[in-house]
Every structure is written in structure tokens, then in C-alpha cells.
Amino acid sequence: EEKEKEKEEEENRNEETFEDREKKVSMELKRARVKKPSRFDQSEMGALVEAAGGGTTKVAPPPPPPALVGVPHGLPSFHMQQQQQQPSAAAAAAGMMMMIPPPPMNAPSPASPWTEHDAPDGRKYYYNQLTKKSTYEKPRELYTAKESFVFENCAWKTTYDKTSEKYYYYNRETKKTQWETPEELTRTEERWERMNEEKTRREKGGGGETRNRDENGDAMNAPASASGPPPPQQTHNQAYVPLQSNSETVLTFENDEERKAAFNKLLEDINMPTSGTFEQFTQLAASDARFNALKKNGEKRNLFNGFRSRKLRAEKEEQKEVEKRKRVAFRNGLQDCRVKYDITSKSKIIRDSPLERNLMSQTWFTNIESLKEREHLFRDFCSGLHVIERKEKLAKKEQTRELFKGLLLEKGCNFNWQWRRDVMNNAAIQNDTRAVHCDRQDQLTVFSELFRSFDQNEVETMNRENAVRFREERKNRERFCETLKELAENKILTPRTLWKKFKNEKLESTASFGMCNGNVSGSTPRELFDDEVIKLEEMVMEDAKRLETFMKENASKDAFPGFQNENVVDLLDESAMATASSGNKLPPFDDIVKYLEEYVETNKEALVKKASLSPNIQPTFLCEVVADTIERIHRRKKRKLRDALDDFEDSLYDEMKLFDEVLNDKTYSETKKAFQSSSWWTKCSKEFDVSDEKLEEIFEDVKKDRLKKLAKKESGGRGRGGSSRDYSSSRKRSRDGEKDKPTEKRTKKKRAED
Length: 754
Prior knowledge:
The chain has 754 residues and is mainly alpha-helical. 56% of the residues lie in helices and 3% in strands. The strands form two sheets. The protein has a three-stranded antiparallel beta sheet, with no helix packed on it. A hairpin with a 5-residue loop joins strand 1 and strand 2 (124-128).
């Protein structure tokens, strides 16, 4: 559709009639015609030869125009055909023989100063005897009738590219260039051929002489001013009757619009052909009353030209529609005969070939009169067959693969087959027609895909079997877990239960244990047993915390008479340090568990309501956890108390160094009064609630040790090899047999880390 639209626009720009074009060409030729040059004087030629250096007179052809430069290889340029240069001055100075043209190869008309010559590269160039210029572009004066017609009706021209040694096409109006043949130029040449054929046919039919044609189909004897043979003669409306006016019927017009309407009606009644002239119309319509509706001849001529232009456009539209239908029928006919005549993407119409003879028998083929248009439509159709042929080839290939796949399945191909042994070297398969039509590479592809499908089926079958087995094993594990939960509810399985004894006595006799023990994957019965025991231990710890909370809130001092006046609440409280400094010892672990069991049994109903203890846990395990907590808290308190007393003793020893001279007269009350506000004294007396008797005992021990140290120093103990280290750095605790201070600090640090 875009091509049709472009064609329509080009034809609308060239709506000149045949007579107008003929007149235009004649006027241009008259302007270009020059006076015939006089014969070259032999005396002048001799003088030129002597001036050039003497010697034998030799006639040399004129130099061709210089090569066109500045055009990149492979790209056309519209400046190429405009770049024409005259022969260089150096060549003229070297010898005047270059200025003397030879006799022309193709003798032009006597009025033309141009002569045609062959360049070294084989191209034609033209030399002007008057202006002494040479050019590759053919002058208008040497144009044939066909070339003149094409030049007048088409803006495209052919130009040679020296760089790529190819011809390209240049548009004089739009200044565009392209490598492909323009459609406008092709249509103009075909139009000339049709007009020339029609003229020849008309001359033969009328008894006229037949003109000779050259190889290109140009009229050899046609004048240069002719722009092509005229179209077939048409006639006006033969039924037309002039409208006469008399005294009774007088035509009157009120305005110019009515006059123009009457004149246009006259044009429609006569219906002049598009080849008719205004003078012919005047002869036919002179007697009509409507002809004189317009007074001025120019207005009449304008309306006549407008009518003729409209009629010409209508005829062109009709002709376009006819040609479009012919092209559609041509393509449809080729599509219908593609298989019958074996037309492929590489087919060509060769003269007298079987394909041409078959196509010439079809009406839709002969309706396209132009040979070039036939070839063009046929090439377009064949170029579109590439995609169709590729799809058909792939479909055929897929069909042969499917047939070979069916052959393999028919022969019993399975997962154990091998390509070389069972397929390639198998005569029963390779001799089959389905294998003969399938390439060896396609056979291998089909076998590989089939083998992968077998592998995939095997994997899918294994996955289904594994899924069934996994389901059964999961059910077995669930049944065994339910058995363990039942034993835990019946208080047979406890946090202290051992696996080996429990398995031999309780589990081996159950069906769920046997089924779970037979599982290939997943958790084993021992792992499930450990998980259940861990759950029970977590429940015991949670219930023990609830029991401790209940005892802290509700237990009184009298509730545990076996704790030697110690309150259980203080024993469970980490911050209550008075229990560590009281000097009371805890009962044995079993006795603590026994006291706690008695307390739980006594307050059973209150514990169920407030503490929400689990019914599956025996109270003994709870009491053991609480007793262990009490012992651990008591040990930590004792350790903290011992550390505080050690710090008290070290600090007191350091402070007593200041009173060595009056140390004998120093008393505990004076020392307490002096240091009771210090942190190390306050920590023992208030935080740990250490009695004054205990602190006074430590004071006396430190004083005694310090006095011994001083007495030993005065008696010269250092000279006899005694230790010179201070007491604070080498501790000797006769009271509890502790190690020296640095060792004790390391022990404290390790204990803190633990």
C-alpha cells in the first residue's frame, strides 16, 4: 500500500499531457542548438604542432575527465555526477595534440559539437569541440528518444561511482541517492515500452512503415524532440447535441458561479478525451450556447484543463485499481501453483524454460504485460518463500524424528540399550524406511531424548517409591512417640530412666518399637527416646521453678523444722547473706529432699491450684531439683563470705602497718572506731552480718602475726636468711591453711569464671 501511494504521488506530479511535454522538449532543444563549427584549418594545425615541439603530426583523443575523488567506498553521493572538470593545463602545455579531437566514434548530428569516446577504464565520455571540455555525463543533445522521455518524466538518473566501480541513482529534485533501482524509473521505462509497442502496432495495422529498433528497444529514427509515442486516440461523446439558443429560450446567468457551472456541464456533455486539446474542444462546442457563458478565453482554458486533469486522475485511479487486482491475482496464482510447478525461493524465470511455458499458459500471468514487472513480482514472491520453506523443512524433520522414535519403541528400546550396539549397528533398524529417511545425527538426537525420558521415568518411579516409604516411616515414628508419651503419663518413663534397661524391659515387647526400629532413614528409637527424656527434664525444671516461687510466697520459718532455725526463703534468696554467716550447716541432701517432699505432700492441694504442677511428674524429682538449688546457692554464699573476710583481713593488715610503734597498745574498739566507715569493714559487718566476735578474732590474729613479724625484724632475722617479703604478698594462714595471696587471687578469678 505504501508503494502504491508513492506511485500515485509521483504520477500526480507528472500530470502533463503528451502535447505539453512535446512542446517543452522542442523549446529546450531549440535553445540548446548551436551553430555548426567550421572545418579545422590544416595550416592552423601545423602551426600548433610546430609550437608544441615539431615532429610528426599525430591526432590524439581528448583526455577523459579526472577521476572523481572524495566519495567513500560503497556510499553514493549526489555530488559525483555534478563534479565535471576540464583537462588540466599541464596536459595542454605538454602537447597541443591532446587538444585535437579525433573523428568521432559515433557521429552525432551535424548541429551537435559533442563527440563520444572510450575512456581507459572502459566507460564512455564526451568531448565538446567548441568549449574543449570533456565529461562522463551524456549531453542532452545526444539523448535518444527513450532517454529524452525518461529524463522529462522522471527525476532519477544513473551515475557511476569510481570508488566502488558501481552505478547508483541520483534524484535531481530531492538530492537523494540510493543503490537500488528506483520504482519511479522502472515505471517510466515500462511506460515508454508500452507506448512504443502501441505505436508500432498502430503503424503496422495502418499500413505505415515499421521503424527499426536497436538492442534497447529505442527508436533509431525518432527525432530527439519526441518524448515518446502518443497514447491511443480517443473520441468525445458521439451522442452530444449542441444546445441552441433562440428568442424564446435565452440563457441568463446571475453570477460567475452559474456561468462556470454551465460551462462545466458543457464539458461533461462533450466528454473530451484526455488527449484532446482546447482547440478541438472549441471546434465542437462553438455552436453551443453555454460555450459563451464565459467571455474570457483564459477562463475557458482553465476550466477545460481542470476538467481534463480530473478525468486524467480518474483514469489513473481506475488503471491503478486494475493493475492492483492483476498483481493480487498474480500472487494468488503463484501461491496456488507453487507445489504444482515446484516453485522455490531459488526459482527464476528463464526464457523458454519449462517454468516459463507453464506460467505463460495461465491468464493471471499474461495479464501482467511488462516483463520487468513480472520478474519483480516473481522475485518478491520467491523471497517470501524462505520462511515458509524453513517451517516446512522443520516440520518434515520433526515428522521423520517422530517416525524413527516410533520405530525404536516398536523394537523394544529400553533403559539398557546402547547407541552403537543396539541402534547404529542394528541392520533391522537401519534398513527400515523410517530410519533411512532420518539422518544419523537426528537418529542420535532421538535416541538421546528417548534415553533421557527413560531415565526421567526411572527417577520419577524411585521418587514415588521413596515418598511412599517416607510416609510409612513417618507413621512408624509417630506411633513410637505415642507409646513413649503413654509410658510418661503412666509415670513409667521418667527423667532418670536409662535407655538400655528401659528398652529391654518395656519397649522390645511393643509393636511400635519394632516398626520404628526397622526404618531405613529418619530418627532412630534411641533418638526419639532421648528427645522425650529431654522434654520431661524441661517440664521438671519448669515445675521446680513454680515450686520455688510458691515456697518463697507461702512458706514460713516453721514449715521446715529440720533446717536449724533457717528460713527456706532466705536459703533460696541469693542476696540473703545472713544464712552464710550464721554458722549453721545445711542438712544432708537426702534430708533436704525428704523435708521438701513432706512439704509438697502437706500442701498438695494448694500446689495444684496455685503452682499448676504437671501431673506426669513425680514430686521426688521436683524436690531433688529444689534441694540442689538450695545447696548451690548456699555454696555461693559461703564463697562470697570467705572472699569478703579475706579482703577484710588484707585491708586490716595494710592499715596496721601505720601503727607499728603503738601496735601493742592498739585495741579492737579503737580500730573499729577508726575504720568502721570503710567499704571493706562495712561489707563484712552489714552486708554479710558478721558478728563483732568474729571480726575481733580476725583482728587479734592479724595483730599477733604483725607483732611476730616486727620482733623477728628487730632480732636481725633478715641477716640470718629470713624472708624480706611483706605479709600481704606472702600469706601464711595458720587459721585456715590458705595459700599465699597471688595464688588465692588466681583461684578467685577462676572460681568467678566458673
